[in-house]
């Protein structure tokens, strides 16, 4: 089974359990609020891996035009209830076609870590073309380069992949983005699990 199919099947299977586990993430909310502070009124925001649509999609769509993309039909069904103002698209983000210079912001929270290693750099490099001049990116990426399937993640097999900070920054810069900051942030996920992600803020000059 290919990585996208593993991710789709996993998120379809866990359904609302993922929302119950993830929606109160203080780190995610903090970076959504940071993105909101950077946007002009009625901006066009592309959110990759929108999941159940709460809190990020809901918060963004209350003030801006949002297109949320997710590979999971089950998660999008939840997002329709949580963020009814957002336009939602079922798609593999690595195969998404976006008109050049058409969005003011790209957001992706904890989703890029589900991509195979080979897919990261091409997708990251494409962001610069999708953004309008002055457009911004806010995203999280796993810290340690690796890929594989974790068999018992929230009770389902789940694919994870990462290329690390240096390769992430290089890919974004190759696409014409200026990386303003990379912050390593640790978060308590409960049950004794502490996860660390690099949070990236970048912009198209």
Descriptive overview:
The strands form two sheets. The chain has a seven-stranded mixed beta sheet with strand order 3-2-1-4-5-9-8, with helices on both faces. Strands 6-7 form a two-stranded antiparallel ribbon. It has helices at residues 3-14, 16-22, 26-38, 56-61, 73-82, 117-130, 165-174; strands spanning 44-48, 65-70, 87-90, 103-108, 131-142, 146-153, 156-162, 177-190, 193-204. The chain has 205 residues and is an alpha/beta fold. It has a single domain, classed as 3-Layer(aba) Sandwich (Rossmann fold), CATH 3.40.50.150. The chain is globular. Helix 6 (117-130) packs parallel to helix 7.
Spatially, the strands of the biggest sheet line up as 3-2-1-4-5-9-8
What is the CATH topology classification name?
Rossmann fold
Helix fraction by DSSP (H/I, runs of at least 4): 25-40%
Largest sheet: 7 strands, mixed
Shape call: globular
CATH class: Alpha Beta
Q: CATH homologous superfamily, by name?
A: Vaccinia Virus protein VP39
Span from first to last CA?
40 Å
Count the domains: 1
SSE series: HHHEHEHEEHEEEHEE
Task: Count all strands and give the number.
Answer: 9
**Averaging pLDDT over every residue, what do you get?**
96
Which segments are poorly predicted (pLDDT under 50) over 5 or more consecutive residues? none
Radius of gyration: 16 Å
SSE class: alpha/beta
Number of discrete helical segments = 7
Write the layout of secondary structure elements.
Layout: H1 3-14, H2 16-22, H3 26-38, E1 44-48, H4 56-61, E2 65-70, H5 73-82, E3 87-90, E4 103-108, H6 117-130, E5 131-142, E6 146-153, E7 156-162, H7 165-174, E8 177-190, E9 193-204
Parallel strand pairs: 1-2, 1-4, 2-3, 4-5
Antiparallel strand pairs: 5-9, 6-7, 8-9
